[in-house]
Write a structure and sequence with these properties.
heterodimer; A: 250 residues; alpha/beta; 28% strand; B: 312 residues; mainly alpha; ABC transporter involved in vitamin B12 uptake, BtuC; 80% helix; 0% strand; binds adenosine-5'-diphosphate; binds magnesium ion; AAA+_ATPase (chain A); P-loop_NTPase (chain A)
Chain lengths: 250, 312
């Protein structure tokens, strides 16, 4: 369980997150939604110890963020940040291979190579494995980064807008893969999504943030309503039900 | 990778052989041992500067900045001058060049940690800001050095002045043994963290996510860079763009992003440029232009080229 207690985060006196408390149970897909600037990325960065905590506590299972050795946490929690620029001529295979670094510390075993091959296959990257990152499209690169987070083989995976740059086929493939991954209730995926329809279709739980506060939290059909779109996103969109699933009419 | 490595090794060996043998007259034993010392010094300088530059570029996440551009060697000279000035003539007579070098190197480690850590943290991701800071710092260090040199006793001035100009033909071989021990020690330490450096080159966020937060490796690397830069500055004086020339060529010839390949390649290329260039200029063409001028000219052009390209 990721246990977030009374987290407040300020930049230059401006509150970015205010009194956020959340219990994210183990297993399943948890979608974070909210308008731009709501604090979603900040919250993920705090959980992933990429930003220092100011007030409040965050625990991941029995590990307290800020007091746990980095190498231990790297096997517990993987993150794919929102904006990634890896300026280099790394090949996809190299990049995905780095996901195993917490385990092999630079000396990959046969097992590590196998896992990388499996991931390349799963993410439909086998044909591109020897290509350099800078020669790929945004979507292909994005898939490679997700594959890297995937081979890190952590119980918790934090993904910040991984559907950016992905076409509909790749988006659906990724979401399906994440759902399979979490199906055994072993792994937990916390994912920031912009498209509420994807959240409604694939997530087990949706948490909405606005201006640094949690404003809605629950199962997709309880959260995705016209009222949410009006109050949180400030747009008068309609919501309808298709095949027993909430769909936002855009 | 293997082929490239073997070719570079052969090229360097040929350069060394040419450097030792071409134009040698008279007592071969004497000539050879004299030249071998200079050769060793050139190789040490190439090794130290190339490795310092590679790891600096890794922790700063760009391929334009080098320790020299950021003012490391200028700071070394400032510390050396300040040291000579502060201990005075009597004490200075009693101290050897080795002690002076070690003391300046130790001071540089401390100063670099305090100064460059803040600069690197504040400027990360903002290339122009870092370059400007580096230029300002270098100018500041040089003016302060000039001030100390003016107030220093003329007798002590010689040692400081000799160190202040780049010179590949007139290497200070008295420091050779100490320099070799220090630079091989620092080199070993760099080699041991080569995998961590690989991860660090992914950028601060991904490396933190993989359990290797950059701040940990940063202070270690700054110390190692200080040692390596001190050695090369003590041996041949400050060279602004040599490191950049070497790393640019290295990234050109190795497609790999692994430090276990980049580091040896960079050292070989640095050796080829220094030893081969010195042989060519001094022995074959018999030119009076110092190699440092040519190296700085080409390195400077590369710097401008990279800078202009990054601005587009
Ligand atoms: N380094 C920063 N300096 C100032 N403000 C920041 C910084 N980083 C984020 N913010 C502000 O924090 C708020 C939340 O940002 P973020 O967590 O990235 O939002 P989201 O991911 O939900 O779009 C935004 O209003 C943004 O302007
Ligand atoms: Mg965001």
């Amino acid at each position: 369980m990721i246990d977030i207690q009374d987290v407040t985060y300020k930049i230059a006196g401006q509150p970015i997150l205010q009194d956020v408390s959340l219990q994210l149970d183990k297993g399943g897909i948890i979608a974070l939604i909210g308008p731009n600037g709501a604090g979603k990325s900040t919250l993920l960065s705090l959980v992933a110890r990429l930003l220092p905590l100011q007030t409040g506590t965050i625990r991941v299972d029995d590990l307290q963020i800020g007091q746990t050795v980095d190498t231990v946490l790297a096997k517990k929690l993987g993150i794919l940040p929102q904006e990634l620029t890896v300026a280099s001529r790394l090949t996809i295979r190299d990049l995905v291979g780095f996901g195993r670094y917490p385990y092999h510390k630079g000396r990959p075993s046969a097992d590590d190579h196998d896992r990388v091959d499996t991931a390349l296959h799963l993410f439909d990257l086998s044909d591109l494995a020897e290509r350099q990152l800078e020669t790929l499209s945004g979507g292909q690169r994005q898939r490679a980064f997700v594959a890297m987070a995937y081979v890190q083989d952590t119980d918790y995976l934090l993904l910040d807008e991984p559907l950016n740059n992905l076409d509909i086929a790749a988006s659906r493939a990724l979401m399906t893969l994440l759902r399979d991954l979490t199906a055994g209730r072993k792994r937990t995926v916390v994912i920031v999504l912009h498209d509420i329809n994807y959240a409604a279709a694939y997530a087990d739980r949706i948490i909405a943030l606005k201006a640094g506060r949690v404003v809605a939290d629950g199962a997709p059909d309880a959260v995705v309503t016209a009222a949410l779109l009006r109050d949180v996103f400030e747009t008068p969109a309609n919501v309808t039900t298709v095949a027993r699933r909430q769909v936002v009419l855009v | 990778m293997r082929v490239r490595f073997i070719l570079l090794t052969i090229a360097l060996s040929l350069c060394c052989a040419a450097y030792l043998s071409i134009g040698a007259r008279g007592d071969w034993g004497f000539v050879l041992s004299f030249r071998a010392q200079k050769l060793a010094a050139l190789l040490l300088v190439g090794f130290s500067l190339s490795w310092a530059t590679v790891v600096f570029q890794t922790i700063t996440g760009n391929r334009i900045l080098t320790p020299s551009i950021m003012g490391f060697d200028a700071l070394y000279l400032l510390l050396l001058s300040a040291l000579v000035w502060s201990i005075g003539a009597q004490a200075y007579q009693a101290l050897s060049a080795q002690v002076l070098m070690t003391a300046s190197a130790a001071l540089l480690c401390g100063a670099a940690l305090i100064l460059f850590k803040t600069v690197l943290r504040a400027g990360r991701g903002n290339l122009m800001q870092m370059i400007l800071t580096g230029v300002v710092l270098s100018v500041l260090f040089r003016s302060l050095t000039a001030y100390f040199q003016r107030v220093i006793d003329p007798n002590e001035y010689a040692v400081v002045q000799a160190a202040s100009f780049a010179r590949f033909s007139n290497v200070d071989t008295s420091l050779l043994l100490l320099a070799a021990v220090l630079s091989l020690g620092a080199g070993l330490a760099v080699w041991r963290i080569r995998h961590r450096l690989d991860v660090t080159s992914l950028g601060p966020v991904l490396s933190a996510s993989l359990g290797e937060p950059p701040r940990r490796v940063q202070w270690q690397v700054l110390i190692l860079i200080s040692v390596l830069v001190s050695i090369s500055t003590a041996l041949v004086g400050p060279v602004a763009f040599f490191g950049l020339l070497v790393t640019s060529l290295t990234y050109l010839v190795t497609p790999s992003c692994r430090h276990s390949e980049i580091l040896p390649t960079a050292a070989l290329i640095a050796g080829i440029i220094l030893v081969g260039g010195q042989t060519l200029m001094e022995r074959v063409l018999d030119l009076s232009t110092p190699l440092s001028v040519v190296v700085e000219f080409i390195g400077g052009l590369i710097f401008l080229f990279l800078l202009l390209r990054s601005l587009r």
